[in-house]
Design goal:
The protein has 91 residues and is mainly α. Helices cover 51% and strands 0% of the residues.
Length: 91
């Protein structure tokens, strides 16, 4: 029996069909989940004594930082922090 989308009498026959894709595990919308996760991340960072600093750089500098961070096995933010601290201690 084919399913007819306009058929109003047999809708209950197809009510239990499993839909393909990832199952919904949270009752919250994706936007709400992202907002809560970001809030929790900011709380964790605050407990760890971290503060957010944002800067804009040209792509060549970012590529060089990425390469240097990969060589040292650290994240780019850790590398930038090391470089800034070294510069401040040299003063």
């Amino acid at each position: 029996m084919a399913k007819e989308h306009t058929d109003r009498t047999t809708l209950d026959l197809f009510a239990d069909e499993r839909r393909p894709g990832r199952p919904k595990t949270s009752p919250l919308s994706r936007d709400e989940q992202l907002r809560i996760n970001k809030r929790n991340q900011l709380k964790r960072d605050k407990v760890r004594g971290l503060r957010r600093v944002e800067l804009k750089m040209n792509s060549e500098a970012v590529d060089a930082l990425n390469a240097m961070a990969a060589e040292r096995g650290v994240s780019r933010s850790e590398l930038i922090e090391e470089m800034i601290l070294a510069q401040l201690q040299a003063r």
